[in-house]
Each structure stands twice: as C-alpha cells, then as structure tokens.
Amino acid sequence: MAYTAQDFKKGQPRWCPGCGDHFFLASLHKAMAEIGVEPWNTAVISGIGCSSRLPHYMATYGMNTIHGRAAAIATGCKVTNPDLAVWQVSGDGDGLAIGGNHFIHANRRNINLNMILLNNRIYGLTKGQYSPTSPRGFVSKSSPYGTVEDPFRPAELCFGARGHFFARAVATDAPGTVEILKAAYNHKGAAVCEILQNCVIFNNGTHDDVYSKEGRAKNAIYVEHGKPLIYGENREYGLVQEGFGLKVVKIGENGITEADILVHDAHCEDNTLQLKLALMGNGDGFPVALGVIRDVYAPTYDDCVAEQIEEVKAAKKYHSFAELLETNDIWEVK
Questions:
Q1: CA neighbor of 87 nearest in space, from 48, 54, 129
Q2: Which of 71, 95, 111, 247 has its CA 20 to 30 A from that of 159?
Q3: Neighbours of 285 (CB within 10 A)
C-alpha cells in the first residue's frame, strides 16, 4: 500500500510560529510515507521539551516519556518488539544533558533505533537557559555573563560512543532532511540524525549561516558516499587531505582539478576523516557538512539478544513454563 504524508499526520502542532519543529515534522511525515512502513507498525518516542511534543502529532504509536529517558524507553520498545520501526526524538537538552548517558549507551550497544536530535542550542521549553550544545560565551538566562564551558559536539559524542551512523540536515531543508531520515531507517543499528534548527524566541539565528538555501550554497557541503567533496555556489571549492587534516582548495587554481578532490567514504570503518567532516564549520573556514557522514554495518543489540534467547532455548530441555514444571517431580493428587 502506498502512503502519503497525510496518513501520518494527527492533531494541530502547538509550537511557536516559525519554530524549526514545524519544518522537521513535515519532513518526518513525508519520509515515513516514502519509507512505507504502516503507521500501526511505527512508534515515536520522545522525552521532555518543545520538540518532545512531536509524538502528539503522529498518527502512529507514540509515547511522550519523562525528561532524558527517550532512549531508554525506545530501547525497551525495540527489544521487546523487534519488528516495530522505532523513532526516538529528543532536543539537545533532553538528549545530551539529562539524557546524555542513555544517548551514548544506545550508540555503544548499537540498538536499531532512528535517533533524532533536534539541535537549537537552547532550552526552549523552560524559557531560554543555555544547553549542552550552546557555544562558549553564550549569553542566556542561566549564563547572563556568558557560558564558561565548551559545548558537546553531537557527532563527536556519537563517534566517541562507537556510533556507526551519523547524518546531519537543516530543518528548513526539506529534501535534505527527508533523505537522511530515509537513510537512517535503512541503516540497521543506532542511527543518529542531527537536525539544525532555530528557536525563534530564545535563540533565533543560531544556524543562520545554513538556514536559507542561499546560505547553504555558500556555507555548506552536501556529502554523498562515493562522490567528490565539492561545494560552493558554482561548485568551485573542494576538500583535499593535507597531512592528518583537511584543506579547502579552489578547483582550477594551482593546477587543482576535480580528480584531486577527496571522495567521501561513509562506509569506512575508520572514522577519522568522517569525524573531521562532521566537525567542520562554525567559523573555521570550512563548510558545514550535511548528509550521511557515517554509515557502517555492525551487529545490533536487539538482534543479538533475540539470537541469544533462541540459542538458550534450543539448549534447554524445556521451551515453555508448562514444560519447565514437568522437569521436576510430579505428584498426582486424587
């Protein structure tokens, strides 16, 4: 059966006008329709925060859980029902502060979850405190003189936890968002998708460099496995490897041709270059990498648990509770 985005819609979203959550929700509806998994075989699990209201607007199974525990609930959901498509939705505060421990262990265990991290670098629901992804020096209600700490970089955290899939999109870029969501679903294992979005009330403009189509043409690079790392308004720039790092070059200058440009390998098990791509941007002279940055196969926790259960059952003399009772002495009372 073919689905449309309308088949996954429910309710009237209660977010501020212009909030990035609206853009992401529309892309998620579209991606789910194109993926084609039935709404009744899909579950959306969230924690607490503005973005965590999302399950209320999905015509699927869903659960708005407690603060920071989306990954824990989603893990239980997937392990007990492996055939269910499970999408976990968290903000940068919910997912990386109180939920940070669950985030890293879901990646380490490689549980087959689609893990969405909506990153606006602020606590929006509680009215504007700095979050784990707010930059050093950020002025907020909880840091009136500027933060004195360095932020988490989600890709770095994911890779450090032995993550096997990481992708990034901008909320206002519907085609780019839909593509990484579909790639996340098709990846077997923990798939982290970082969505860059603005909080129009408390942190508007935090991703302005890439929030418009024109901005992305200048300041972003769309990475695609097997394709050269080229970007720019006229595709005039590229990335080459220089020593242990990357370097921006202009094609046509100093004898540089497209053949010299580094080709993206999202399937390389060694994540060295993938991490360098993921950490680019933010005023360092490099573009922000968008698309699927890492996509590597590894055994999943939920599959391994299911296989272990079957192995143990096969080795036992009993396969049900009734058979277990019959393994002991039995008396018939008359």
A1: 54
A2: 247
A3: 8
